[in-house]
Structures are given as C-alpha cells and as structure tokens.
Amino acid sequence: MPTVKPKSKAASKTASKTSSKTSGGQASDNMRNDNVSPAKKMEELYSLVEGIDIAMLTNRNFDGTLVSRPMSTQEKRPRVDFWFVTSTETHKVDEIQAQPEVNLAYYNGKSREWVSVSGTARLVSDRDLIRTLYKSDWKAWFGDEGGDRNGGPNDPRLVLIEVEAHEVVYLKSNQPRAVQLFKVAKAMITGEPPKIGEIRRVGNKELETRR
User: Fold this and answer.
1) Residue 190 to residue 154: CA distance in whole angstroms
2) pTM of the full predicted structure?
3) Which of 47, 143, 147, 167 is most deeply buried (CB count within 10 A of its CB)?
4) How many H-runs (helices) and E-runs (strands) does the chain carry?
5) Are 210 and 54 in contact (CB under 8 A)?
6) What is the structure's pLDDT at 28?
7) Which domains does the chain have, with CATH numbers?
8) Residue 79 contacts by C-beta under 8 Å, 6 or more apart in sequence?
9) Who contacts 31 (Cβ-Cβ below 8 Å, separation ≥6)?
10) Which residue from 163, 154, 48 is spatially nearest to 104, judged by alpha carbons?
11) Cα 89 from Cα 67, distance rounded (Å)
C-alpha cells in the first residue's frame, strides 16, 4: 500500500490560506456571519434588492446548459417572492416550464454588495395582477403590433414570472466606498483578502416563516 507523506506546516498553511479565497479575491467562510436575526436579514435583503433594478435570471436551456438574462424586478413582496414580466413568445417561457429551478443574481457596483437567490419560477397570467404591476415603460419592450398587442396592460403577450426563493445568500457592507477601495489596494500589497462586508445566508426555514 503506498504511503502518503504528511504536508509540512508551511504547505498546510499555504493551502489553507489559498482555499479560503474566492475567485473575486475575497474570503468566503471567514466573512460569513449568520449571527443575525431572521427579521434583520429580511430587512437587509429587501433594502439591497430595492437598490438594484436589474437581476440576472439564470435557468437551464433545453440542452442542459445555463443561460442568463437581465430582468428588471417589478415588485418584492413580503413573502419573499420576486416578480418579473416577459413575453409569452420568448424562449425563457418554454425553458422555465420545462425546468423551473432558477437563480437570481443582483450586484451593486458602487457598494460591491450582492444578492444570490436560489428558487423556483412559475408563470402567472393573472390579468388583474398584470394590470396591478403594469408600468408604462413596459410598452417600449413589447412594441406595438396593433390591436391588443400594443404593449399595454391588456396585451395577451404579457406574462409574469414569479420566483419563490428557497435560499438567499448576500453580502452586506456598511463601509464607505473610499474605505473599500483602500482595503482592496492594501490587499494587493499584503496578499490578505479584504473584508469589505459580511456574507449572510437566509435558509429555507427562515424564508418559510415569511410565507
């Protein structure tokens, strides 16, 4: 039986330090802080998403590959549901019907804060709800083909995508941008990942209490 030599202390330290970093140059586990009440997490989550209009909606294509599309969030509800609008004639509608598991990614370039939502999407064609959520700028994205297909609230092409969250992970930062930039610059010299915020997780059980 072959013998495996134990790593030296120096090698182990280097490996540990390397594995604690993410591709963005930030630490992962040592930035995580879940010692926050569920109510506080929900407050922070809503605050973060309210400040970011566009989410990248990722789902699986028919060949199994992942595809992402920018989507404007229409409304965040107390039940941790996210609403989007699209056309019944788009590929994403068929893809979501076939495989409803999706991810939503939000990123704030100024604060470097981000939100990742794992959930299940479903299509909602409730006309009353569509009229309630309708915004005048939708018209620009659907175009006017005449008749009811004019991009208005009664356009039969309009369909809502509701994403019910199962797990949310987000980065919350309370540091001014100048401080963040300083820490990033310092990290480039010291080799130590900058701590620009705290990563928090909202699990399915916590989310269910809001439903």
Assistant:
1) 59
2) 0.76
3) 167
4) 7, 8
5) no
6) 47
7) 28-208 (2.30.110.10)
8) 210, 211
9) 171, 195, 197, 198, 199
10) 163
11) 17
Neighbours of 93 (CB within 10 A): 15
Longest dimension (CA), the chain: 78
Q: HSE on the CB side for 179, CA within 13 Å? A: 8
Residue 50 tokens read as: 């309210």
pLDDT confidence tier of residue 150, bands split at 50, 70 and 90: very high
Residue located via tokens 């939100």 = 115
The pLDDT tens digits for 98-123 are: 999 999 999 998 888 999 999 999 99
pLDDT digits (tens, 9 = 90+) for 56-96: 999 999 999 999 999 999 875 556 689 999 999 999 999 99
Residue type, 153: P
φ/ψ region of 27 (left if φ > 0, alpha if ψ in -120 to 50, else beta) reads beta
CA nearest to 209, candidates 107, 88, 79: 79
